[in-house]
Amino acid sequence: MEQYDEKLHEECGVFGVWSEAGTQVAKDVYYGLLALQHRGQESAGIAVCKTDGPRDIIDRKKDMGLVTEVFSEEDFAKLQGNMGVGHVRYSTTGASNLENAQPLVFHYLKGTLAMVHNGNIVNDEELKMRLFDEGLVLRGTTDSEKVACLIARLRATEPSIEKAAKKAASILKGGYAIILMSPRKIVCMRDPLGLKPLCLGKIPTGYVVASESCALTAVGAEFIRDIEPGEVLTISKKGLESDRELCGSKHAHCVFEYIYFARLDSKIDNISVYSSRFRAGGCLADTYPVEADVVTGVPDSGLAAAAGYADRAGIPFRLAFQKNSYIGRTFIKPTQEERESAVHMKLNVLGDVVRDKRVVLIDDSIVRGTTIARLIRMLKHAGAKEVHVRISSPPFLHPCFYGTDVPETSQLIAKRLSTEEIREKIGADSLGYLKLNDLNTITNGMDICRACFDGNYPTEVYQETE
């Protein structure tokens, strides 16, 4: 059964704090997770410990739901510690249930660790067999559990958790941002290609690590830098210790962070998310000009590109939709009829803006085509004379193996239909996608992964089935 919510999803958001002994960080982690809520809405969790406490005590709370639904004031009274890690999840591997929610806390011969993970490991079956050969049978289904078990196993022979993390990083393939917390330090790992983002900030009493810079701002942290692809960074009472031995020259930053995933006020690898989306709109205006009266965007991901299109084309930008931010996760509606009505509950057209107007409608992507078709019908029902659709990404043609929930190819409308056939199916008066070469423009020429558009994967992956 087709879901209403056809937007792509990032797998997770991760957050970590190391602070001086005596301070309490659980609420900082909470606020950081609130800022990362857009990266996952299925579950949330926090784990904390004290650097001057027992080596095997890590307190944790995790549950299904949004951050505000999972935690209460009573929870913060129990989550006592000056170090903490947090996680918000949208599942791309493993079932959506409490068992697979993070942080993962695992015990091994030399102590206890907590781990939060964003991304997807493409050699996870290899890891599973490796662990099986060592006599370890995994209970869960996620690659996160496999990574956690691998690190715990390596720690048995490595002199420190950071050495075990580095050894694990040399084995793992795929995209990942991982934060490990032992009772004395925090260790951060970013995949050598830089597929998944991770950045470092400074607070008066210590340091903060997060998937996006907007989460640093949420806790009053000063942005220091992005953690380098392949870097293993340790935070302890000694300060910062960086191991860059696995850092290389080949990078493949996920371009969809800039198109859709990341929050507008974030900077990732020194590129402003807002500016990149604004530039995408300008590229669309250059490639697909049209005579129109107003430019608008689908809230919220299409608005910055719409502003860029309007600015370049010299056409007024207007807000044409009122978004009800309190509807919540409409993709859990149980019946198709309810999904059909959910879009009307979540977005209302401002009739005075579009009536008797030729409208340019900007969105970030088309996956199956159902949502954009409904929005076009709503605009025309409200009196729009024409609706010209512009998409600030190229057509999706291939699945993602690195932690983005791109559906199987049979569900990708651009895999089955030509642009003209899509235009006709969704009811648009014209349709234009961002050109592949324009991806370099919006990311200032950085090395990017665009495999979901062109099929050129930066690492060996499992063969997709047509």
What does the model show?
This protein is an alpha+beta fold. The protein folds into two domains: 12-251, Glutamine Phosphoribosylpyrophosphate, subunit 1, domain 1 (4-Layer Sandwich); 272-448, Rossmann fold (3-Layer(aba) Sandwich), CATH 3.40.50. It has 17 helices and 23 strands. Strands 3-2-4-1-10-9-11 form a seven-stranded antiparallel sheet. It has a six-stranded antiparallel sheet with strand order 5-6-7-8-12-13. Helix 4 (124-133) crosses helix 5 (143-155) and helix 9 crosses helix 10 (303-313). Residues 1-5 and 329-336 have low confidence and may be disordered.
Number of domains: 2
Question: Over all CA atoms, what is the radius of gyration?
Answer: 23 Å
Q: What is the total tally of β strands?
A: 23
Q: Which ranges are low-confidence, i.e. pLDDT below 50, for 5 or more consecutive residues? A: 1-5, 329-336
> What is the beta-strand fraction?
15-25%
Average pLDDT, rounded to a whole number, is 89
Reported for the largest beta sheet, the result is: 7 strands, antiparallel
So how many helices?
A: 17
Fold topology:
Elements: E1 12-19, H1 26-35, E2 43-49, E3 59-64, H2 67-70, H3 73-78, E4 83-89, E5 104-108, E6 111-121, H4 124-133, H5 143-155, H6 161-171, E7 174-181, E8 186-190, E9 199-203, E10 206-210, H7 213-218, E11 222-226, E12 232-236, E13 239-243, E14 253-254, H8 256-261, E15 267-268, E16 271-272, H9 273-287, E17 294-297, H10 303-313, E18 321-323, H11 336-346, E19 347-349, H12 351-354, E20 358-363, H13 370-381, E21 386-391, H14 413-416, H15 419-426, E22 430-433, H16 438-442, E23 448-449, H17 451-454
Parallel strand pairs: 14-23, 17-20, 20-21, 21-22
Antiparallel strand pairs: 1-4, 1-10, 2-3, 2-4, 5-6, 6-7, 7-8, 8-12, 9-10, 9-11, 12-13, 15-16, 18-19
Helix pairs in contact: 4-5, 5-6, 9-10
